[in-house]
Here is the input.
Amino acid sequence: MTQDITLDRGWAPSACTLPTAEQPLRVAEFDALFADAVQGLTRPESTRLRLDLVFGPGTAARTAELTARENGCCSFFTFTLIIADGCLTLDVSVPPERVDVLDALQARAGAAATLRAPGDDGDGPHQP
Here is the structure.
């Protein structure tokens, strides 16, 4: 994704403690995850976003590692990774005063997910 993230202040609010120079790298990591793994998204509540991800251990590990690092600098996020019934889901919640950040996250996830090739399972190379 080639969006100019320097203009995307909704993604990195002033409460973020990640050094400014590292913020574009983190945004790129999320964009890559979204492009590789998001199969659908819904907004069950204004403060909660649900991402349906490609099921697989690689996607689960990658998502868990990235969201743990993100929570370390933006502690207002609550990330819940759900693995059940052959499905992988990431719920992202924020307090009401951070809905603008969740809006920006949803926009990025939706845009990146539409770029994913049909049939691409997002979980890396597989042996035939």
